[in-house]
Structures are given as C-alpha cells and as structure tokens.
What does this fold into?
Amino acid sequence: MDNLALFFLFVLIAIIITYFFPAIVAVARRKRNWGAILALNLLAGWTFVGWVAALVWALMHDCGENGKKPAPPAAIDG
It folds into this structure.
C-alpha cells in the first residue's frame, strides 16, 4: 500500500471510531441499555442531534430499579 492509501485507511478508521464513539462509551461504562444507545447511534447518529443525544445518554448515570440513583456503598467502620 502506498502512503495515500494508508492515509485514507487511517481517515476511514478515525471517522468510524468518531461516529460510534457514543456506543463505545456506553459499552466501556457498562451501561445496561448499551444496545439501545447503539441503535440510536446507528440509526440517528448521522444527524448531529442524534449523535449528541446518544453521547449524552451514554454519559448519564444509570438509575436504580426504583428510578432513583443507587445508594453509595456503606462505609466500613474499622
């Protein structure tokens, strides 16, 4: 491969990683709804609003079962 082909391959990989960045963040943060974030990213990520919505969703904290934030772990008295 010549230098131009390598450059275009690098640019293509960078574009794909940037496009799927919200889904990558969701999987890395072990979001319980990462599949829905991936679907939003895949279907609406081509619009800037859809991409930002997927990113915000991926960065939000998961709520507990009752819709509230999970309680922090109890301190251990030593």
